[in-house]
Amino acid sequence: MRPAHLLLAVLVAAVWGVNFTVIEIGLDHFPPLLFSALRFLVAAVPAVFLVGRPKVAWKWIVAVGLVLGVAKFGLLFVGMDAGMPAGLSSLVLQVQAVFTALIAFLALGERPTWTRASGMLVALAGIAVAAVDEGASGPLTAFALVVAAAACWGASNVLTRRAAPPDALNFMVWVSTVPVLPLLALSLLLEGPTRDYEALRALDWQGAGTVVYVAWITTVFGFGAWGRLLRRHPASTVAPFSLLVPAFGMMSAAVFLGESMTPLRWCAAALLVGGVALTSVPPRRPPAVGPADRPARRVDVVRS
């Protein structure tokens, strides 16, 4: 990987990690479902008029939009609003790699290797340790919501694999058009029009900045740059950089939000990152067979 692409991969991981701290700040200005709806609204407009027509079937855009946009981000924002710390959220959400492998096995018949299966067990042990730590210091319900968000992310990864979009930015922008109305409807129903109106009326530069960051920087720039890297390099080369996301997430939460890391949380981080790293290891390909290794071709002699 060229140095410029290496720096871009690290930058995307940093952008995605800091995103959790920005979400935490944004939740001080907006109800969670309204905040999530605004994220996708600002990500889709005006980008949807610039990226061209969709390059995959609408059924995939709608499916990923509902699972990723409504379910995954709705659960994540609600979980963080309910008390899940930003740094821990950035860590726990990485268990999506385990859910991706499990759902791919159940839905697509992709049997995991022993290495990946071992990684899944290690990552799940990390989740158990993180749950014990959170149970001692915070609400387990919020923790469970973020784990559910990771499961929805895993499902959306499998749907995206089936969709096989040729342009990641085009796909993400069109996917962003789907969750806006469902999230707005859920916000009006569950959070109430009065709360939504008060949040919008009190909008200031900090609140607007959080929406711009999670929409344009995290979504449009982040996924666009990540898609560009995947087009130029093998997925096995690019994917490990996502393991930097919780590192940047926990560091930014410590610096800007004053979150502390307990010994149990460090243990959970080591298990989760190590397990996800094993889960991300690509299967070994069988060695190429050279001409000398191929069995001799049978020659049938035609007798006259």
Short description:
With 304 residues, this protein is mainly α. It is 73% helix and 0% strand.
Describe this structure in words.
With about 300 residues, the protein is mainly alpha-helical. The chain is about 75% helix and about 0% strand. It is built from 14 helices and no strands. It is globular and about 55 Å long. The C terminus is likely disordered.
Structural class call reads mainly alpha
What is the makeup of the main sheet? none
In percent, how helical is the residue content? over 70%
Query: Low-confidence runs (pLDDT<50, min 5 residues)?
Result: 296-304
Q: Distance N terminus to C terminus?
A: 61 Å
- Tell how many strands the DSSP assignment holds: 0
Q: What average pLDDT do the residues reach?
A: 86
- Write down the secondary-structure element order: HHHHHHHHHHHHHH
H/I helix tally: 14
